[in-house]
Prior knowledge:
By secondary structure, the protein is α/β, with parallel strands linked by helices. The chain folds into two domains: 2-252, TIM Barrel (Alpha-Beta Barrel), CATH 3.20.20; 257-329. The protein is 40% helix and 12% strand. The strands form two sheets. An eight-stranded parallel beta barrel has the order 3-4-5-6-7-8-9-10, surrounded by seven helices. Strands 1-2 form a two-stranded antiparallel ribbon. Helix 1 (23-32) links the parallel strand 3 (12-14) and strand 4. Helix 11 packs across helix 12 (278-285). The longest helix has 19 residues, at 257-275. 53% of the residues are buried. Flavin mononucleotide (FMN) binds next to strand 4.
Amino acid sequence: MQIGRFTIDTPVELAPMAGVTNRAFRTLCRENGGGLFVAEMVTSRALVEGNPETLRIVTFDEDESPRSAQVYGVDPATVGAAVRILAERDLADHVDLNFGCPVPKVTRKGGGAVLPWKRDLFTAIVRAAVDAAKPFDVPVTIKMRKGIDDDHLTYLEAGLIAQDAGVASVALHARTAADYYSGTADWSSIARLKETVKHVPVLGNGDIWSAEDAVRMVAETGCDGVVVGRGCQGRPWLFADLQAAFEGRPERVTPGLRHVAETVYRHGELMAEYFEDEDKGMRDLRKHMAWYFKGYAVGGDTRRALAMVSTLDELRGHLAALDLEQGYPGADAEGPRGRAGSPKKPHLPYGWLDSRDLSEEFEESLREAELSVSGG
Ligand SMILES: Cc1cc2nc3c(=O)[nH]c(=O)nc-3n(C[C@H](O)[C@H](O)[C@H](O)COP(=O)(O)O)c2cc1C
């Protein structure tokens, strides 16, 4: 998979996930297999303002290459300035732009997955990012959804606009904002995007839970690479399976509980290091516990204790008390995990659908769209 000047041997991207894909988690994923590993999203404004937590997000391991950051923004000038900061200060080697956020408080202001509806604004944001990155040879890519809902699809047009603007690849989460995380991703839309966008790689995203799913997505859609999100939550070894599958090897990682426990502890250590604060690190680790132990026989009390862990010592104690000889539970540890939910009628600014171009009345509301963003 080619992303600008970077050749990625395994055609796999770790999906940017706010609150999940920090440096600690990426280290675990990268140790398992190849691919492109995208950091958590940062907002363009926070970056321009030099917010300390935002600057922590765009830190990478020394051996991380390319260093891949994701930017969310709604204003071309601010996005351009943010990308310039990342490139000029040598903070990142690749910048992905997020046009996939379906959260009502963002779409209500015209941001996230409903932004590409305003063609002129979308074009201006992508161009500003590409122009800012070009002197530094930093590839810019986009990640989007299919559109607002089935009656207001934007992805084919947005893909072409982005290609014309000079992006290095386009990724599609094959759902609309209205779909949220419900149902199954519509992989046929990835095939349509691949038929439409011919000059840059097209990456497919949505509902890859196993290496077999990834290979099937490529076979069914012709996409150049896959983007894996929830499927690797609590399963960083999925990247070993993905690499094996794309190299045509049959072996798969089927960890017993001892391997899971060792990984959780290492994750804890990496978290403490990343936050430079054991307490913060443990707090952030808590959300991963249910994902790690999905399908394993671990009692309710132990699960609760693990989900409230506050020191590495405590974590070691809880993990040591598990039945570490327990083997891989098979199907119970596989399949869908993480965020799900039902379709939601997208909240939009009043009159948003009336025109494909941006008018002044939306500018104030868009500024607020950037303040409330929280993921994709
Ligand atoms: C917890 C969480 C946080 C996410 N944060 C982001 C984000 O910051 N930027 C983004 O583009 N997508 C974000 N997403 C969407 C994922 O990148 C991905 O598109 C989506 O989960 C579908 O892929 P999957 O079926 O493999 O999970 C997030 C998803 C989850 C579950």
